[in-house]
Design goal:
There is one protein chain. By secondary structure, the protein is mostly helical. It has 10 helices and 3 strands; from the N terminus they run H-H-H-H-H-H-E-E-H-E-H-H-H. The protein has helices spanning about 5-15, 20-30, 35-40, 50-60, 75, 80-85, 115-125, 135-145, 160-175, 180-194, and strands at about 90-95, 100-110, 125-130. It has a 3-stranded mixed sheet. Helix 7 (about 115-125) links the parallel strand 2 and strand 3 (about 125-130). The longest helix has 14 residues, at about 20-30. The chain is elongated. The model is unreliable at about 150-160 (pLDDT under 50).
């Protein structure tokens, strides 16, 4: 990370934009309050992919493009929607090591937001590994999130039986134990007996 370097100046130094493009974007930022990277993409000065690559370089964390990444409902329910919206984070995967320790992969607009990371770790009781994501991709993914989610990050708290079953099915599918197609066949077979 480059804490003493301005974002735009570093983009010029890396030959992504020129001084005129930065000046124009900074003026737009003053009037709109939008993020400089989003403005540069909208102006056609850089592509979304260039912005993602630069953000990964700038923050020194891996990037993740969630546009084509399916996220299970179980993983999404680990953090409540309000927290996700307020902090600019999206939980997208949980991995478990050989010792059984779980790590939450967290896409973040600002992967240096230590308070968001700490709160996500507290809510999920998992270590968090941050990944950088552009603001635009965050907004697209956030808009597609389900409205309901637990208020304390607890996966099953206050869930109805149906929600519990859906979470269990998602978990079984995520672990490769049971595919959704196999489950549908079992349900169809049971319905035929009734």
């Amino acid at each position: 990370m480059f804490p003493n370097r301005k974002f735009g100046e570093l983009m010029i130094e890396r030959s992504l934009i020129d001084k005129h493009q930065l000046s124009k974007a900074l003026k737009q930022q003053q009037t709109t309050g939008r993020r400089i990277g989003s403005i540069l993409v909208d102006n056609g000065d850089i592509s979304e992919e260039q912005l993602e690559n630069f953000l990964a370089f700038y923050y020194d964390v891996p990037k993740i493009d969630l546009t084509g990444t399916p996220i299970s409902a179980t993983t999404l329910r680990l953090l409540d929607r309000e927290f996700i919206g307020n902090t600019g984070v999206i939980p997208f995967r949980v991995i478990e090591d050989a010792a059984g320790r779980k790590t939450l992969m967290l896409a973040m607009i600002d992967p240096t937001d230590d308070s968001a990371i700490a709160k996500a770790e507290e809510m999920t009781h998992m270590e968090v590994e941050p990944f950088v994501i552009t603001h635009r991709i965050f907004l697209d993914k956030f808009k597609s999130l389900p409205e309901e989610s637990p208020t304390d990050g607890s996966l099953f708290k206050d869930c109805e039986t149906r929600d519990l079953l859906i979470a269990l099915i998602d978990a079984l599918a995520d672990q490769g134990i049971l595919s959704r197609e196999e489950l549908q066949r079992l349900i169809d077979k049971r319905n035929m007996r009734q």
